[in-house]
Specification:
There is one protein chain. By secondary structure, the chain is an alpha/beta fold.
């Protein structure tokens, strides 16, 4: 087996692919010992002040990894994924595009096509542990090492749920589908339970020296299965799980620093699309932020609908920008505003890393509980508050109210 094929990564979104590249860059650099939590960005920045930003490395500086892209069906995500795949190939990665959606038979055909590689891989990297398709693939995994890279703030919920021994359920998901939905959940329960067990490290073989030295795991019976989380989120590993901080070193070495504009940029969110926030309340909040902070551009989330974006543009006068790459790369390449405003989301944790030393201020606006829809999950309020409360090196803004006439 080739070295790259021995490490197999599955990604379903552009951000997941970016974080696989960041993981491969970190693995090839000075890996160090696993940590018991993500350190404060401010503390790490102080330690970094005396040394230069990471210098560029030639293609091939990443640890060998074969990336399998399992694309969704929406055009925006597919377009960003194709551009990220091109970047990965430029860095020397092997990338395979595998359709797994679009028809009833597509998942089964993809599973059959990937089964041999999945069984043979020594390290498996996944970007979305909540994905049913990824969970199905995990039933075939025999690897000694399983790595979870960031899929946004979902990583926080993943670590918390595995610590409590709960089944893996997305924070914004609510029960539905009536009897057919419950029957599907019941039929899928054994697969979900098996996947959850895969994320529990097997420490029967002892302390596993490889976890400290970062040597590649060796095949053979009796080896302890290691589970690593590679993240920018404020999480604490548990039960033998190890952690490697994602500081966006590859992004900082590859791009920028950006040219700064005098304006303020606003980052969009898919909280409306996921049924968490009321559309009218969201429009009012964006209008208020635009007026108060002089925002001029709105970086749309890839899942935001064209109709919603047209309404935002008409109501606020904001220039709508649909990024062709994850925002961390767009912001690092520039131009970017001196202030970036966001609602509770992944970027309030990732942008301070990606924009270290650039002088950009990241600010987060709270979500007022009154904005939540009746369909929002019971976890929505506390989860969004937790995303904001744990963000480091950002300015916190109060929830916006509708402007007076």
């Amino acid at each position: 087996m080739s070295t790259s094929a021995s490490t197999l990564a599955f990604v379903e979104s552009p951000v997941q692919l970016l974080n696989v590249l960041e993981w491969a860059y970190a693995r090839a650099a000075a890996p160090g010992r696993p940590l018991d939590g993500v350190p404060s960005q401010r503390a790490r920045r102080a330690g970094r002040a005396a040394r230069k930003e990471p210098g560029p490395r030639p293609p091939g500086a990443l640890a060998p990894v074969r990336i399998v892209v399992l694309p969704p069906t929406d055009p925006m995500s597919r377009g960003q994924l194709r551009r990220m795949a091109a970047l990965a190939r430029d860095e020397g990665c092997e990338v395979r595009w595998q359709e797994a959606r679009g028809s009833r038979l597509a998942p089964l055909k993809a599973l059959a096509a990937l089964a041999g590689d999945v069984r043979a891989a020594r390290t498996v990297v996944v970007g979305d542990p909540f994905s049913r398709y990824v969970q199905l693939l995990l039933t075939l995994v025999r690897a000694e090492e399983l790595v979870v890279v960031d899929d946004g703030t979902a990583t926080m919920e993943f670590v918390a749920q595995t610590a409590r021994g709960e089944r893996l359920v997305r924070w914004h998901r609510v029960g539905g589908g009536g009897l057919p939905g419950r029957l599907r959940e019941l039929a899928y329960a054994p697969v979900s339970a098996a996947a959850r067990r895969r994320f529990v490290p097997d420490r029967s073989a002892g302390a596993a020296t490889d976890a400290a030295t970062d040597a590649a795991p060796q095949p053979g019976p009796g080896r302890a299965r290691r589970v690593e989380v590679f993240t920018s989120m404020p999480v604490a590993p548990h039960g033998g799980m190890t952690l490697r901080p994602n500081e966006f070193a590859w992004t900082r070495a590859r791009f920028g620093p950006p040219r700064l504009t005098k304006g303020t940029d606003l980052v969009g969110t898919s909280l409306v699309e996921t049924g968490v926030v009321d559309p009218d309340r969201y429009l009012d909040a964006v209008r208020s932020l635009t007026l108060e902070h002089g925002a001029t551009r709105y970086f749309a989330h890839r899942r935001e609908s064209p109709e919603k974006l047209r309404a935002l543009s008409r109501a606020t006068g904001l220039e709508i920008v649909r990024p062709d790459l994850p925002l961390e790369l767009i912001a690092r390449r520039g131009p970017v505003g001196r202030t970036i405003l966001s609602f509770p989301s992944t970027v309030v944790h990732t942008l301070p890393y990606a924009l270290t030393g650039t002088g950009v201020t990241v600010a987060v606006c709270d979500v007022d509980p009154a904005w939540l829809t009746g369909r929002a999950s019971p976890r929505a309020r506390s989860f969004l508050a937790g995303v904001t409360d744990t963000a480091r090196d950002v300015h916190r803004l109060p929830a916006q109210v509708a402007p007076t006439a």
